[in-house]
Amino acid sequence: MRLSTSTKWALAAFAALVLAFVYVPLIVVGINSFNADRAFGWPPSGFTTKWWAVAAQSEGARAALWMSVKAGLGATAIALVLGTLLSLALSRFDFWGKHTVNLLFILPIALPGIVTGIALQSMIQNVMQPVFGIGPGLFTVIVGHATFCMVTVFNNVSARLRRMGTSLEQASADLGASPLTTFRRVTFPLLRSGLVAGALLAFGLSFDEIVVTTFTAGPGSPTLPIWIYNNLFRPNQAPVVNVVAVVLVIASLIPVWVAQRLGGTDAAESRL
Amino acid sequence: MTPTPAIRLSALRKEFPGHPPVVAVDSIDLDIAAGEFFSMLGPSGSGKTTVLRMIAGFEEPTSGTVELAGDDVTGLPPYRRDVNTVFQDYALFPHMSIQDNVEYGLLVKKVAKAEARRRAGQALEQVRLSDMGKRRPAQLSGGQRQRIALARALVNRPKVLLLDEPLGALDLKLREQMQVELKAIQREVGITFLFVTHDQEEALTLSDRIAVFNAGRIEQVGTAREVYEQPATDFVAGFVGTSNRITGAAARAVVGRDGSFGIRPEKLTVVRRGSSAGDGLAHAPGTLAEVVYAGPVTRYVVDLDAGSRVIALHQNDHQSIDADLQRGADVDIAWHPEHVIAVPESPVSH
User: Dihedral sign, CA of A6, A8, A9, A14?
Assistant: First the structure.
């Protein structure tokens, strides 16, 4: 389709506006992390890396970062195993209640996080803690995050399985391979890039989650987003928050970018 | 005592769920002898591929049994059956080299690596692609992939090789070349080939015997000659080759009795009205409706006075044909009475 020159300019300007709307605030945060003025006076009064040094020294930020990494890895691991198994079950087998299971599994991503959070908190408070002695903490955060992380893995693996079709697995069985051998030598190698993409998205999702985390993390063990939220309005901590926010943005973008590259290229599949 | 057939299907039936259920295969009985090149021919949806998939083990029959070399394998999964399949889309493993693809069946059956390598090499030689072992399937042409799929199946030396429209994706020239190769390989290895196709010419060319499928049933089983020259039903007469159908008033006038009859276009001769076509030939008057020159043959469309339209095919050989036969000319069509075949209506109507 060809557009007139003026239309092209108008569309370009509009696109630039939309992108600016999304990214200018992020850039401001980035600039402020180098702003010499403690109160972020604008324009910046000078350039400093002081806040980065302070942030690097901050015990609270480091503990929160470590907590987030552990929660992300834990949730991703659970999501990988459960999401893949369920995807295989729903894509490759017929059983009674299949469509119901499918729906129930997808639902958590549509559920408002606050509802999931409240439900999990009440479960922890009323059942997990009194009966099993499991209080809010890393474990409950991992479980809470896994509920929605599973869906991203499930979606990625399901899409891959659908595209793969069943004839390769049938060919493997036809050549004498048991179902386990078929999975190990045909299905899994072809799923690998889908699994990596799903895992990266799951980790990214977990890493910046705040709503469910608020209800499942204990008071003493905040994740990075929660730590930021808690410290945002403390004048002393504000400069450090900017630094941590920049780190968080970078840490979230990398997995998404890698996942997109893996998911988008079909040609890569044969090479992986 | 007759030898045990390589494949025996008894009252084999497959229904797919639905309201009402779809009967894909309707109680089929069939024996296929060891070493035979057997084709299942029929239009799409006639059940031939479903039968193949039930023999391979990918579909479970609703009822009936599948026997391989005398053993009932109906309940066995595909990996416990001594058959191999060449898939329509080849289904080569995209993440493995050609060599690994061909070795796959041997390695999963715990054949030693060196032995597997040797046999895979032989199989690749057999399909004349020895130097392709290092490549990936995506780097091969359609015809080459087809031959790799064949090698990957044959290397396991199965009792039966199942071929699901294996030439369907190839262009005409390659197809004809592969037909010749396929037949040569089958003769060489002596394995039973069960070949599914909707291409009647392919079936006629390749097969020792053919089963003609229609709407989940077998209409006729026979050699190529039998199926072509003596079609058992009007469906077979119409599907295998083309056939002039003569029924009703035309049958009474032309054949001399009631019924449904067929005659192949190449058995009909067209001559100018009144001139003799030869001794012992029956003839009927008509008008030439169309003359189509098609290179090796000329096709004459004749409207019989008795009220039926027939097609006659003449070889454009050295005996030059009457070039004066023009559209609208009064002609006689002539035939040997033994070439008129009574073709009863198919049990299944369309």
Answer: positive
Task: Decide the pairing of beta strands B217-222 and B71-72.
Answer: unpaired
Q: Which domain holds residue B293?
A: 244-342
d(CA A100, CA A92) in angstroms, rounded, equals: 16
Query: Minimal CA–CA distance to B198: which of B61, B53, B84, B47?
Result: B47
What pTM was computed for the model? 0.80
CA distances to A19, A107, B135 from B97, in Å: 45, 41, 5
Do B194 and B162 touch, CB atoms closer than 8 A?
Answer: yes
Domain residue spans in chain A?
Answer: 60-271
ipTM: 0.83
| Antiparallel, parallel or unpaired: β B37-41 and B192-197 | parallel
Q: How far is CA B84 from CA A171, B6, B118, B190, B213, in A?
A: 9, 13, 20, 15, 22
As a whole number of angstroms, the distance between CA B139 and CA B146 comes to: 13
β-bridge pairing B83-86 and B160-164: parallel
Which chain A residues contact residue B169 at CB under 8 A? none
Domains identified in chain B, total number: 2
What's the helix, strand, coil split of chain B in %, to 5? 30, 30, 40
- Are B200 and B120 contacting, i.e. CB atoms less than 8 angstroms apart? no
Strand, helix or coil for residue A60: helix
| Contact A130/B at CB under 8 A | no
Q: Is the dihedral of CA B41, B43, B46, B50 positive or negative?
A: positive
Q: Which residue has the tokens 């503990």?
A: A63
Per-residue pLDDT of chain B (350 residues; tens, 9 = 90+): 578 999 999 999 999 988 888 999 999 999 999 999 999 999 998 999 999 999 999 999 999 999 999 999 999 999 999 999 999 999 999 999 999 999 999 999 999 999 999 999 999 998 888 898 899 999 999 889 999 999 999 999 998 999 999 888 788 888 888 898 899 999 988 999 999 999 998 999 999 999 999 999 999 999 999 999 999 988 998 899 888 888 888 888 788 888 888 899 999 988 888 777 777 788 889 999 999 988 888 899 999 988 888 999 988 877 655 666 888 889 989 988 888 888 877 665 44
Q: Which residues contact B47 (CB under 8 A, 6 or more apart)?
A: B14, B24, B25, B26, B28, B213, B215, B216, B217
Residues of B within 8 A of A179 (CB-CB) are: 79
Q: Looking at the domain assignment, is residue B19 inside a domain?
A: yes
Is pLDDT of A229 > 90?
A: no
Of residues A170, A174, A269, nearest to B94 (C-beta)? A269
Output the domain CATH number for residue B299: 2.40.50.140
d(CA A221, CA A71): 11
Contact residues, chain B to chain A, C-beta under 8 Å: 56-58, 77-79, 83-85, 87, 89, 91-95, 104-105, 108-109, 136-138, 152-153, 156
Output the furthest CA–CA distance in chain A (Å, rounded): 73
Q: Which two tokens stand for residue B246?
A: 């003569």
Overall fold of domain A60-271: MetI-like fold (1.10.3720)
Residue A265 sits at the chain B interface (C-beta within 8 Å):
no
